[in-house]
């Protein structure tokens, strides 16, 4: 018997395992479907360019055919390894802005305003620049400046200034807007995933057990109380009991899937798959949101990009010369937050990532020659999608209906056209004159708005920020309450990006870690499952 069973050792699950096992009187079990994070490409930051082909570390999801994107299936990579997506992402450390979290509170997530979440951000962070009003210096998550920056990334920042935008040395400081270099989740030039920062230092605790290579198939329920989980290891099914709580940290896709497999979800859908309905929860899987991203590529006249960089030389500099050179690059070194003419308020509504290489189809399609890429996404899309079961078989991938560009008034599509237009304008600035070759994607620089929209429909992809499929709130369609407890079920919480009511204005890894930091406080403070508003043991359920 364990006190807490955590499903998913990703960005949130590793945080929970660290914080909850700090109490030696409780026993914690952490379950992960993927392997341990031993692959060297995980830890060398530039290895991200090769990780796209390491399928055993990736759930390798794809959406259903997207009606507004020429019927294409978009690739949704998610980490399937200790550290989850924090072990395969681009390491950009971005928190969003205060208004993002104030919006959560106004949506019914009481206690999630900026003043509430900032302490958890500070507690998680160990910023190499030191502590301050907006940064922590003693947390498990190392945040650092890049050790190596490609000259093209500096040209990108200069181009933004030539367009009249400010230079910004800290996207998590007092002002988010501007062009600059990202700070990254690295320590001493190596990736600092949550597996590295939170889990590795506590693996020797006698009250913490980690099991990898196990697929959780359902939450075990007695009446309306979660009492454990069932999981598959190889061809064998096993069950494990949780004396206090079951904590789902599978992420925006896996957490709602597991709820539905356990009989918690839209009743008609569950019955259609032959699943007994324990709790009719229509919001499970709904409210799905993601940042849609469009890439603009130019050829480079100078061979300084990462397109043809020597893998052997990079590995030599990194592994044998003390984490030096391009191997320490996160590839997406520079970025920007800008306000478009369509901005609804004072917040930036477009984010850019700059890559000193030609990035087509997530880097899976190699293009000849040298070039560089501007990613641009609309930060606050209005379109909503849904995660749905494809089968009652836990090993089957769920259906992802992202429903990009499906909002009623077409605002998301207009914003994506603005993203493409601003990217093109940026790349025509004098800072790129010495590097600029021919346009690669799209092939012309003179496309009108209708042609740019057609380009978006043909080429836009996910930038890997899915959230919202187990939304927190107090209305009938919310899935968890503001303390992340599943409505209608005792002893069960969802703790990951699925609980976000809305996308934040930026990358979602740091906010996911913050969510787990806050949840660990409540869970440890409660000391057991809930019955009404008080703590209880499972036996009382």
TrEMBL record:
Keywords: FAD, Flavoprotein, Oxidoreductase. Residues 79-102, 251-265 form the Glucose-methanol-choline oxidoreductase N-terminal domain. It is an enzyme of class 1 (oxidoreductase). The keyword Flavoprotein applies. Its EC number is 1.1.99.1. GO terms for biological process: glycine betaine biosynthetic process from choline. GO terms for cellular component: membrane. InterPro entries: FAD/NAD-bd_sf, GMC_OxRdtase, GMC_OxRdtase_N, GMC_OxRtase_C. One of its GO terms (molecular function) is choline dehydrogenase activity. Belongs to the GMC oxidoreductase family. This is Choline dehydrogenase.
